UniProtKB/TrEMBL annotation:
<dbReference type="InterPro" id="IPR041492">
    <property type="entry name" value="HAD_2"/>
</dbReference>
<dbReference type="InterPro" id="IPR023214">
    <property type="entry name" value="HAD_sf"/>
</dbReference>
<dbReference type="InterPro" id="IPR052550">
    <property type="entry name" value="Pyrimidine_5'-ntase_YjjG"/>
</dbReference>
<dbReference type="InterPro" id="IPR011951">
    <property type="entry name" value="HAD-SF_hydro_IA_YjjG/PynA"/>
</dbReference>
<dbReference type="InterPro" id="IPR006439">
    <property type="entry name" value="HAD-SF_hydro_IA"/>
</dbReference>
<dbReference type="InterPro" id="IPR036412">
    <property type="entry name" value="HAD-like_sf"/>
</dbReference>
<dbReference type="GO" id="GO:0008253">
    <property type="term" value="F:5'-nucleotidase activity"/>
</dbReference>
<dbReference type="Pfam" id="PF13419">
    <property type="entry name" value="HAD_2"/>
</dbReference>
<protein>
    <submittedName>
        <fullName>Noncanonical pyrimidine nucleotidase, YjjG family</fullName>
    </submittedName>
</protein>
<dbReference type="InterPro" id="IPR023198">
    <property type="entry name" value="PGP-like_dom2"/>
</dbReference>
Length: 228
């Protein structure tokens, strides 16, 4: 690992902010409010991979934000064979975005590792998430104070893994590629994207996915102490 690191860039969802846990709680809330008899375990069984696939399309600019929000729900309800009007799906998609940042479970070790890193490095966020809710997630989970800059894809005009978003973030942070590292859960968007842009990178993967030998990986956030 480069010992001259000065700036550490984090992804937010699935890296610090426990997206799946918070997402499930948001859906549970809005389904209950609308009196929808939906088995949450069955719903999530279909929704989680569908959502991931939609985000991959969104990253590649194959769909719009609106199509992502509606389509991932529509496809899930179709697989569940749950009869529901499109207007209600649209309403649920909006309610979901409203309630999602109200649940703010973080991955184990988040606060401890940020407390450890903060005195040593400049900390930043680079996220493909929507600007309107990413700020609320950071504020509501009380971790916004740790970060000097926050870059999202709407600001940069491109999404990870496009190298231009990393260039934008580096410029905003007044940081250099040679002394910066990106930490995130997505091998394509966060790790390979950062490496291609000239930064160092570390993959965060609770499930210890198989990656190339040259990829640095941690399974728990506190393992970052090995590198930083």
């Amino acid at each position: 690992m480069n010992t001259n690191i000065t700036d550490v860039f984090f992804d937010l969802d699935h890296t610090l902010w426990d997206f799946e846990k918070n997402s499930a709680l948001a859906f549970e809330t809005i389904f209950k409010m609308q009196n929808l008899a939906i088995d949450m375990q069955e719903f999530l069984h279909f929704y989680v991979p569908i959502n991931k696939a939609y985000w991959e399309k969104y990253r590649k600019d194959e769909i719009t934000q609106k199509e992502l929000r509606f389509g991932r729900l529509k496809d899930t309800f179709d697989l569940l064979k749950f009869a529901i009007e499109d207007d209600l799906i649209t309403f649920l998609s909006e309610e979901y975005i409203f309630y999602l940042p109200k649940y703010n479970h973080l991955f184990e070790g988040t606060i401890e590792i940020l407390d450890y890193l903060k005195p040593k490095y400049n900390l930043h966020i680079i996220t493909n998430g929507f600007a309107e809710i990413q700020g609320n997630k950071l504020n509501n989970s009380y971790i916004s104070k740790y970060f000097k800059t926050i870059t999202n894809s709407e600001m940069a005009g491109v999404k990870k893994p496009n190298s231009l978003i990393f260039d934008y973030a580096l410029d905003l942070a007044k940081a250099k590629k040679e002394t910066s590292v990106m930490i995130g859960d997505c091998i394509e968007a966060d790790v390979q994207g950062a490496l291609d842009a000239g930064l160092d990178a570390i993959l965060f993967s609770e499930s210890n996915v198989q990656v190339a030998d040259n990829i640095k990986q941690v399974n728990h956030l506190l393992e970052l102490k090995k590198y930083l």
